[in-house]
Design brief:
The protein has a domain at about 55-130: Nucleotidyltransferase, domain 5, CATH 3.30.420. The protein is built from 3 helices and 5 strands. The chain has helices spanning about 20-30, 80-90, 110-120, and strands at about 60-65, 70, 75, 95-100, 125-130. A 5-stranded mixed sheet has the order 3-2-1-4-5, covered by helices on one side.
Length: about 130
Amino acid sequence: MLLEKKREREVQIPTSSMADIAFLLLTFFLVTTSLDLDKGLQLVLPPTGTKIELSRSKIASIFVNANGDVLMDEEEIPIGSIKDKLRIRLNKNKDLIVSIKTDRDTPYQAFMSVLDQVQLADATQISIAEPEM
């Protein structure tokens, strides 16, 4: 009798856990994906080819040599004092343009430190130029 009552079984693939697997894969990729949040330098650049002649009194020139030494208006100063000296000049002249020039072999960290000090001094007009050879 038991043999006679044997039913035919249908072969089925369980799909109830398919949503769980998709959710776990989605969670895995969201957790392991890294987002690049670097925004770069926040500088507004003028259009190419524009040249304006200015008097020396409207420009604060900063030169960084290959050793990382800083000259501000042809006077050697430490990087940490750039902010204070620039703030004094910016209080006297709101339209002051800060011109940063570097040697070809200047360490990148020295340039970025100078640029950070200039931005901390609340300078809004910054020129990054090549030095005259």
